[in-house]
């Protein structure tokens, strides 16, 4: 069962756009760190101003990124996207509210392991960082 | 530095009331699982309805547990208290909003490790469970 789960994770990881072309070693390492989370329709993952301990990768579903008052939708995230990286990079609180539209399957990467990955794989770090900066514009 | 941190954690753990009288083996094991988090005044740890991936132990500070509309304060948590266990036990979303009053030092226990601890130490599980049930009344 664990082997199957791991195999499943490995496949998801390869579908995450910023992980395109990474080597097997990286895939195996990050797979160990990811925790699956299921979001049901309308579930909040977190809200603007919350303390940040993790970033997340979308495996399946549609996830809305909203302003604090929820009146503006900044983007919709889908399979292969990620979120929650800004607060980790900037050591700030959450800059937006993240809410699932339907059922979504996501993976959590905890701050502890995020920091390991960032240090050990500078090119991955750069890819996440670049996307992150473009979101802050 | 890591040894010092661990020693510091071990002392905190012994101050958490539900861990009173536990053996050294348990303390050493749970210390490995806890991640420190600093909350600044007014920081939200999470809010009613959010998805739950962790529970938390208070090392220092004052933390307010509020109803969803934040009009009622259910309790103030202090050194040695814990929060976030209800959603993990019930596999539900957060039943209340948790906000730091001043600066607080807390420890996070992730769902993955929470489940390990609960299985391996049924008497600790029972103590957390009992407190949890009393909160739901
Ligand atoms: N303008 C934006 N466009 C797309 N995603 C965003 C935007 N602003 C914030 N986000 C994402 O929403 C997340 C909210 O939490 P973080 O600030 O940790 O990280 C943020 C980004 O991943
Ligand atoms: N009436 C209450 N008194 C004290 N603590 C509470 C009360 N209701 C909820 N909590 C705590 O607040 C937390 C909110 O998230 P959880 O539902 O995971 O777990 C909850 C408890 O730890």
Written account of the structure:
The structure is a homodimer of 137-residue chains. In chain A, strand 4 (63-66) and strand 5 (73-77) form a beta hairpin. With 137 residues, the first copy, chain A, is α+β, with helices and mostly antiparallel strands. Chain A has helices spanning 2-15, 24-33, 85-90, 111-120, 122-136; strands at residues 35-39, 44-46, 54-60, 63-66, 73-77, 82-83, 97-100, 104-110. Chain A is globular, with a radius of gyration of 14 Å. Chain A is 40% helix and 27% strand. Chain A has a single domain, classed as Jelly Rolls. In chain A, the strands form two sheets. Chain A has a four-stranded antiparallel sheet. A four-stranded antiparallel sheet of chain A has the order 2-7-4-5, with no helix packed on it. Chains A and B meet through strand 1 and strand 2 of A and strand 1 and strand 2 of B. One adenosine-3',5'-cyclic-monophosphate binds next to strand 5 and helix 3 of chain A. One adenosine-3',5'-cyclic-monophosphate binds at residues 52, 65, 74-75, 83-87, 94-96, 98, 135 of chain A.
Measured as a percent range, the helix fraction of chain A is 40-55%
| Distinct small molecules bound, one entry per kind | adenosine-3',5'-cyclic-monophosphate
Distance between the termini of chain A: 43 Å
- What is the fold named in CATH at topology level of chain A? Jelly Rolls
Q: What's the short version?
A:
2 copies of one chain form a homodimer. Helix content of chain A is 40%, strand content 27%.
